């Protein structure tokens, strides 16, 4: 699938170029967010933010990945799995994996990791989930069994949270097994607390010593030199996709013809300088237009700058959004939230910076699912989207031409508001000033700029808005807990491919399904019962009291495709009429990182044929897929001076 070198739009991998053997051409220099000398590993250390551990993502493989074309689970370390009606689950591992210390990767390693998940109440950390299993045991060298806490739990939901979402297998039994034993042996709350404390204080360093921290993927961290972490291909790696339909023979680590060097540069000026000196092949793009043009002259372009029609429609992450204070008299009224959505168009917010316009996709339809999930649940494929069901939903402002001040005025008047001298007053006759809290420019310039534009649209409508930029440490603690706010900038979550998980992120409930309060949301989340007009698709229908928790619990269980589809549409309608989140944009798979395409070639999704894009092993919008290509064979990526065929 390729064509012209480095243009990213070709249809056939080009295997005609001559091979060169220079060290510069065989080392991919990428950016990292942590100083390598300081790098240490413990998924559960309280001092670690998930982002600090991104350096480690290439060195482990995941249990399973999501096949975006077939929309199903594809095993990676897991070979097969089965769910019995009584809630017993069997997982079978591939017998071809080894750790970088040379030992076999076996069921006991995964048992160790799952028990650590039980000990800590969170599986895999990162975007992990609460453990929904118990009684884990190895039943063979490569087989393990456990029981679901809820026997009728949806297998798809379980696999997503426990096997696919950020589910790198890192817990070598010899390095971490004692914590699984501590969990097994703990008979009191004090014993569990002591085990948790021991684990959070564990330090695994140096990260390049495979006896201390062994990996299992194609990339093996071998040395730290100054600010650079070096990865070498692990010769004994055997790709789980060696027998896939697109693989031309076995894919093994000794076939990979390039290495990785991940370097830390603390600021944009140093990163841009490194790009100009070609010390970096992949980095964040420069901020100024002139610097961007200088980089383009060298050969840098967005790492995934493919035509929109090549991007798989299910490659989006919800990027920018705003939470409402659902317990405030102003924003707690759904009519006020709906009015805001009618007068603030999303497209102008997402395209304020032309350099990011292709990188962001405005969230056109309010469903709580994002455009990728709307494709799945509202109309099959991208060409048939949106269908009649989605188009029957209430349409809020998408472009500036869609702003509907008449509808917004009617909603506020229905709430008892009046407009005096061009300014809205609430039902008590008090002038309204919305308190909008956002991120300062040094934390997130995009959110800051979007907030300015939201304020301008609301002020123009007469809904006076005061914008305050506040550091996260204050915004997410003192201000959040005070309740003295109406809208607050946030990173809402990710499009997770399962409706329940997306709804879980986008409905800001006050408690979880077990009835426990959700600490981070304090008292500002929404109530479980809301008023919604029915039937679905009629915003002027009769209002009914609906328990959203009950709908969500139902989505957690085994359902037929028809039942699930109907329920997803109903919950999406509840979201459409409740507006629990002001969603602005979704990150796309284009333009996030820039790559020196004069030195490296990359290929697009190619209608699902490129395995690096087909299987959700990468974080689209966060990482270039280049460092993951070797796990699938390097036909789809390589130096421009080689044939790029290093194993596949």
UniProtKB/TrEMBL annotation:
Protein's GO biological process: peptide transport
Biased composition range(s): Low complexity: 9-20
Domain annotation Solute-binding protein family: ranges: 75-490
Keyword Signal: yes
InterPro entries found in the cross-reference section: SBP_5, SBP_5_dom
Segments of this protein annotated with the region Disordered: 1-26
Gene3D superfamilies associated with the record: Dipeptide-binding Protein, Domain 1, Dipeptide-binding Protein, Domain 3
Domain of life: Archaea
Family indicated by similarity: Belongs to the bacterial solute-binding protein 5 family.
GO molecular function: peptide transmembrane transporter activity
Keyword entries, A-Z: Signal, Transport
Protein name: Peptide ABC transporter substrate-binding protein
């Amino acid at each position: 699938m390729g064509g012209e070198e480095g243009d990213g739009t070709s249809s056939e991998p080009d295997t005609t170029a001559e091979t060169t053997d220079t060290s510069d051409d065989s080392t991919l220099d990428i950016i990292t967010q942590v100083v390598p000398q300081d790098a240490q590993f413990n998924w559960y250390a309280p001092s670690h933010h998930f982002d600090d551990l991104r350096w480690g993502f290439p060195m482990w493989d995941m249990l399973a990945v999501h096949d975006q074309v077939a929309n199903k689970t594809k095993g990676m370390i897991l070979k097969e799995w089965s769910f019995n009606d009584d809630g017993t689950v069997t997982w079978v591992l591939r017998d071809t994996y080894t750790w970088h210390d040379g030992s076999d990767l076996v069921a006991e390693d995964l048992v160790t990791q799952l028990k650590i998940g039980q000990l800590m109440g969170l599986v895999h950390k990162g975007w992990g989930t609460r453990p929904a299993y118990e009684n884990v045991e190895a039943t063979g060298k490569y087989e393990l069994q456990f029981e679901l806490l809820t026997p009728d739990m949806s297998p798809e939901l379980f696999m997503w949270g426990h096997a696919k979402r950020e589910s790198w297998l890192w817990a070598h039994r010899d390095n971490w097994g004692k914590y699984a034993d501590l969990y097994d042996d703990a008979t009191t709350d004090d014993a569990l607390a002591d085990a948790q404390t021991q684990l959070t204080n564990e330090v695994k360093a140096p990260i390049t010593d495979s006896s201390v921290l062994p990996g299992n993927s194609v990339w093996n961290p071998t040395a730290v030199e100054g600010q650079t972490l070096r990865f070498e291909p692990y010769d004994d790696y055997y790709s789980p996709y060696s027998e896939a339909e697109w693989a031309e023979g076995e894919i093994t680590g000794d076939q990979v013809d390039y290495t990785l060097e991940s370097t830390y540069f603390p600021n944009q000026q140093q990163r841009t300088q490194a790009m100009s000196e070609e010390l970096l092949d992949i980095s964040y793009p420069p901020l100024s237009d002139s610097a961007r043009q200088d980089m383009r002259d060298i050969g840098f372009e967005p790492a995934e700058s493919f035509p929109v029609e090549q991007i798989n429609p299910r490659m989006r992450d919800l990027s920018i959004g705003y939470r409402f204070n659902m317990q405030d008299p102003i924003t707690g009224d759904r009519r006020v939230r709906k009015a805001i959505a009618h007068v603030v168009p999303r497209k102008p917010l997402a395209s304020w910076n032309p350099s990011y316009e292709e990188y962001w996709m405005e969230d056109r339809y309010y469903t709580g699912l994002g455009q990728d999930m709307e494709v799945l649940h509202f109309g099959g494929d991208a060409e048939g989207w949106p269908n009649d069901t989605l188009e029957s939903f209430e349409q809020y402002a998408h472009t500036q031409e869609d702003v509907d001040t008449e509808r917004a005025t009617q909603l506020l008047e229905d709430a008892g508001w009046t407009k005096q001298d061009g300014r809205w007053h609430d039902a008590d006759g008090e002038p309204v000033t919305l308190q909008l809290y956002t991120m300062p420019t040094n934390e997130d310039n995009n959110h800051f700029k979007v907030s300015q534009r939201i304020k301008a649209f609301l002020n123009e409508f007469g809904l006076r808005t005061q914008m305050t930029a506040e550091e996260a440490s204050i915004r997410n603690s003192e201000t959040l807990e005070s309740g003295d706010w109406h809208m607050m900038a946030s990173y809402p979550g990710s499009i997770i491919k399962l409706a329940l998980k997306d709804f879980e992120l986008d409905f800001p409930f006050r408690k979880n399904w077990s009835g426990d309060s959700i600490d981070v949301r304090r008292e500002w989340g929404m109530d479980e019962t809301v008023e919604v007009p029915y039937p679905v698709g009629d915003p002027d229908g009769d209002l009914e009291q609906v328990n959203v928790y009950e709908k969500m619990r139902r989505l957690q269980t085994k359902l037929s495709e028809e039942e699930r589809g109907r329920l997803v549409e109903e919950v999406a309608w509840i979201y459409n009429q409740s507006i629990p989140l002001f969603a602005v944009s979704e990150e796309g798979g284009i333009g996030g990182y820039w790559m020196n395409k004069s030195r490296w070639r990359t290929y697009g999704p190619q209608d699902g044929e490129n395995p690096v894009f087909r299987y959700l092993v990468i974080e689209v919008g966060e990482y270039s897929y280049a460092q993951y290509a070797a796990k699938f064979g390097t036909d789809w990526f390589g130096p421009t001076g080689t044939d790029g065929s290093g194993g596949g």
